[in-house]
């Protein structure tokens, strides 16, 4: 058994910090008490004067799909051969040996949702994975976790320069509707055929991959920056009665009154860096605070590799500087992304029964000088100080 003693535990669900001991067994948190007596064979970490936080989570990134310090050889983030590729699976391209995974867990990030980029109208399946491991199959929390789709500049820029649909926002929406209609029809034919194989439609990997969306097992994961793109995404989600998260949401604070009427979770960012295109003109760290005050479920993203994943706490801190409550910032990189991904039963907070994904910090993790002293994933100390414990 692993026991963490004397640490100040961040209870993100109750927005308070408490001095508690934590015991961990078989990868799970089994007890949180004021005092836990260690037995002879227990491994004990003394966290006196330290902050004990849940492992942080990024609900939208491309970790492992765009190799660090390499070119096209390890660029697997977009399958640019067709604007409709829902059959792509992130797990088939992820490279957990890329050093960005190590940087992530050394920076206190223990889980992510990662997957295809936004070149395609429908890009493929995201996966939720832990950030430590050598084989992606052993790191998966849930796959698929969402179906990536994209609105705005990116699809029309890539295919438009090739003279291929979509060259406009109208074209993007039309392709999206067409694909969703065909997938729904395919699913209905499968259901109507029952066990009669002679009546089943010919197998189509694209439409098969979209069935979990219609069954509301996974949401659409909509890349949308501009207000009109956000509203188009909402329009289509309502037309087809599917779940959806709104990712990036750069213009969201400009239309917050409208968005407050809807019930779509929002994954905000990346807010750090240059405004590299027209649809980022309203990029600001103020957005997170505005959405939170409006009662909208919100998490913060780095969109790694746009911002290196280990800077996720820094992004949360900058949101605090621009008006977001500190506890809400901590929630935005822990329990909120867990809930948005539908994984709150396993990750996102230090709670008995959940995965033992815990990070011990030298001080407040939203302080720039805070250092990770221990990273624990699935109950195993995988990083301490400057050393990995593999």
Descriptive notes:
- There is one protein chain.
- The protein has 390 residues and is of the alpha/beta class.
- The protein has two domains: 1-55 and 348-390, Urease, subunit C, domain 1; 56-346, Metal-dependent hydrolases (TIM Barrel).
- Helices cover 25% and strands 25% of the residues.
- Strands 1, 2, 3, 4, 5, 14, 15, 16 and 17 form a nine-stranded mixed β-sheet that branches.
Share in helix? 25-40%
Q: How many domain units? A: 2
Give me the strand/helix succession: EEEEEEHEEEHHHEHEHEHEHHHEEEE
- Percent strand equals 25-35%
The separation of the N and C termini measures 18 Å
Uncertain stretches of 5 or more adjacent residues: none
Largest sheet: 9 strands, mixed
Q: What is the residue-averaged pLDDT?
A: 97
Name the CATH class of the largest domain: Alpha Beta
Query: Structural class from helices and strands?
Result: alpha/beta
CATH topology of the largest domain: TIM Barrel
CATH superfamily of the largest domain: Metal-dependent hydrolases
Number of helices: 10
Task: Give the overall shape.
Answer: globular
Total number of beta strands: 17
The CATH architecture classification of the largest domain is Alpha-Beta Barrel
Write down the Rg. 21 Å
Helix-strand layout with pairing:
Elements: E1 2-11, E2 16-25, E3 28-33, E4 43-46, E5 51-54, E6 56-61, H1 99-106, E7 109-114, E8 122-130, E9 140-150, H2 153-160, H3 169-193, H4 205-214, E10 220-224, H5 227-240, E11 244-248, H6 256-259, E12 266-268, H7 286-293, E13 298-300, H8 312-321, H9 326-331, H10 335-340, E14 358-361, E15 372-377, E16 380-384, E17 387-388
